[in-house]
Amino acid sequence: MPIDRMVDLSSRQLRRFPLHVCSFRELVKLYLSDNNLHQLPPELEQLQNLQILALDFNNFKVLPLVVCTLKQLCILYLGNNKLCDLPQELSLLQNLKTLWLESNCLSHLPEVVCELSLLKTLHAGSNALHTLPARLRCLQELRTIWLSGNLLADFPPVLLHMPFLEVIDVDRNAIRSFPSLAHLPGLKLIIYDHNPCRNAPKVAKGVRRVGRWAEETPEPRKRSELGREEETNGKEPPLPPNKQPQPC
C-alpha cells in the first residue's frame, strides 16, 4: 500500500487495468489518465475508500458501472473520452462534488447529473450540448459550471433560476443575445466571449465579465440607436468605426 494512499498510472499506455491495484483497500486517489482503457474490472469495487478517480483521456464509450459502486468518490474525471450518455447508477455517487465531462460526445446533459445533490463544480465544455435540463436547478450546491465550446444558441434558461452560481462559462457557443444576470446574488464571474452576441449580459456591481463590451457601463447600444440619438440632439457625427464598439 503506498504511504500517501495514491496510485498514479497515468500515461502508461495501459490497455487493461492492473488487478493488483485492487488489493490496496485503503487507496484514496487513483489516476488512470491518458491510457487506452475502455473497460474496468468488477474487482475495482473493492476500493471503497477511493475519493478521487481520474479516467480522462482514455477510450471509454460507456462508463463502467463498477465506477458507480465507489460511493466515497468526491472527484471524478471523465473528460476526453467517447461518452454519449451516463448510466442512471451514477446517482449512487451522492458524495460527488466535482464532475469533469469535457470533450466527450454528449448531445445533451444526462438527467442523472441533476441527482448529484452535493455537486459544486461541473465541467461539460467541448461537447455538443444544445440546452440544459430544467432539473439542473435542483443542484443547490452547484457553484461553478463550465459550458464552453458547445452548441448553445440561447443562454440556458435554467441558469437564471440558480441564484447560488458563482461562475458561469459559456465561451465559444452560438448565443446571440444575453438576458440580464443582475438578479443572481452569488454570481462573481461570467465568461461569454466568442459568441455572435449583440449585447453583453447585464450583471450586478462587482461581477466580472469576460467578453465583448465587458468593460462598458451602461450596456453597449446599437450604432443605429446612437445615430438616431445624435441626430435628435444635434450632436457631432458618430465617432469613426475604429473608435466604436465592434459587434462580435
Automatic annotation (TrEMBL):
Residues 208-248 are annotated as: Disordered. Residues 212-234 have a biased composition (Basic and acidic residues). GO terms for cellular component: cytoskeleton; mitochondrion; nucleus; sarcomere. InterPro entries: Leu-rich_rpt, Leu-rich_rpt_typical-subtyp, LRR_dom_sf, LRR_domain-containing. Keywords: Leucine-rich repeat, Repeat. GO terms for biological process: cardiac muscle cell development. GO terms for molecular function: actin binding; alpha-actinin binding. Signal peptide: none annotated. Residues 237-248 have a biased composition (Pro residues). SMART domains: LRR_BAC, LRR_TYP. SUPFAM superfamilies: L domain-like. This is Leucine rich repeat containing 10.
